[in-house]
Amino acid sequence: MYRNHTLCRACNNDQLIPVFDLGVQPLANNFVGAGEDHAGHAPLKVLFCPECSLGQLSVVVDPQVLYSNYLYVTSQSETMKHHFEALLNDIIIERGPGTVLEIGSNDGTLLAYLKSKGMGPVVGIDPAENLSPDASKQGVQTIISTFDSTAAADAKKILGKVDVVIARHVFCHVDDWLGFIYNIEDISNRDTTICIEVPYCVDMLQKCEWDTVYHEHTSYLTLKALKALLSKTRFRMQKVIRYPVHGGTIMVMLNRMDYLKEPHRSVDTFVSKEEVTVETWKAFATTAQNQAKALTHYVWELNEKGLTVCGFGASAKSTVMITACGFTKDQISFITDTTPQKHGKFTPGTSIPIVTESELMALRPDYAVCFAWNYREEILRKHQQYLKEGGHFIFPVPELQVV
Ligand code: TMP
Ligand code: ZN
User: Fold this and answer.
1) Test site for ligand 1: of 198, 217, 337, most ligand atoms within 8 A of the Cβ
2) Which ligand is nearest to the CA of 229?
3) Would you say the pTM of this structure is higher than 0.85?
4) How far apart are CA 212 and CA 220, in angstroms?
5) Which residues is 102 bridged to in the sheet?
6) Span from the CA of 228 to the centroid of ligand 2 (angstroms)
7) Which of 13, 59, 106, 379 could form a disulfide bond with 51, CB atoms 3.0-4.6 angstroms apart?
8) Cα(50)–Cα(253) distance, rounded to whole angstroms?
9) Which H or E run includes 337?
């Protein structure tokens, strides 16, 4: 199900240093129902490359196991709607309207939005067979495949020429980065803009968002590492934009070396400010350990007082945190989530059931651990009544806070 990873994905260095270890964990999005098989567990450990500053997991889990029946659905939340508006705006500013290929298009939500705003034609590539009917319903054609040379060529055939390639939260899931870039190179021209959005390692380390470390995220990207990788290709960074979603992300726009526009000053600014070292990672590991202990103690104390505790948001992050804290159904009796596909299933590795969000008010637990902390303001606005009736949200990161 997984294999060991020992050579830096960006620069080929074989002297990688272990910096963060979460033991052995279930696959974070492997939500299964009663009687269904679990995919299993794998080590969850980060290795750091001192040459290019890339953080990367010590194992690579078989993508077929991770993504063929994928229960992560692009959020329809307000927060994400605003984010998509910002993305569209930034793409239009940089290169204007045009045809779009999205790699990892999930249920087609972003492409449907871009289409409605005049971009297009659009086409998506995604391996999740279960999500392609949803994309069709939104008017988005999906090639059901991982992003390989055949899928790339098929997409180009449909689009004619590819003006914009979007890869949101997919690049750091990929093991073979050079292969990924070469496949993009094959279908792009001098003016194609490649927009890669990833969680920014600097944000994750600074805000100690340790629950974003899970098997799908094989890399924790710095711009220095990306620069090292791109030095072996025909592409360069054109522009870097930071966004507040998912705890802090960057979109890096890439263009071919022969693109006529000069790279934007944001590239040098961000690269020169970036300081990610073994020490930064080790400090992060210590803080993460303290955060996990603080949450574990807090929840156990509530349980001992006879207070009820649930989880809010069955995100992949919730699996990481629940496993690291050793919570079972005795501590966290259920988790609410808005994703219909997750209802009736269990948090991976536990028997904690996932229920609809309406259960928050129906069962009115005293405390709800908010595992979807990246939507904090939206959730607090939506659940004023729960708070008024004496309910509390526990936010586990950046430090434990009870509202
Ligand atoms: P994400 O952080 O990876 O987008 O996952 C967030 C999870 O939380 C996802 O399963 C949807 C869920 N969620 C809720 O249950 N209620 C909410 O109000 C929001 C915003 C998300
Ligand atoms: Zn490296």
Assistant:
1) 337
2) 2
3) yes
4) 10
5) 124, 166
6) 7
7) 13
8) 25
9) none
Tokens of 343: 């209802």
Q: Residue 242 is encoded by which pair of tokens?
A: 């930071």
Question: Is 366 within 8 Å of 308 (Cβ atoms)?
Answer: yes
Pocket test for ligand 1, best of 375, 382, 393 (most atoms within 8 A of CB): 375
The pair of structure tokens assigned to 224 is 């220095």
Please state the length of the chain. 403
> Mind listing the pLDDT tens digit of every residue in the chain (403 residues)?
999 999 999 999 999 999 999 999 999 999 999 999 999 999 999 999 999 999 999 999 999 899 877 777 887 788 999 999 999 999 999 989 999 999 999 999 999 999 999 999 999 999 999 999 999 999 999 999 999 999 999 999 999 999 999 999 999 999 999 999 999 999 999 999 999 999 999 999 999 999 999 999 999 999 999 999 999 999 999 999 999 999 999 999 999 999 999 999 999 999 999 999 999 999 999 999 999 999 999 999 999 999 999 999 999 999 999 999 999 999 999 999 999 999 999 999 999 999 999 999 999 999 999 999 999 999 999 999 999 999 999 999 988 999 9
Q: Which amino acid is at 173?
A: H
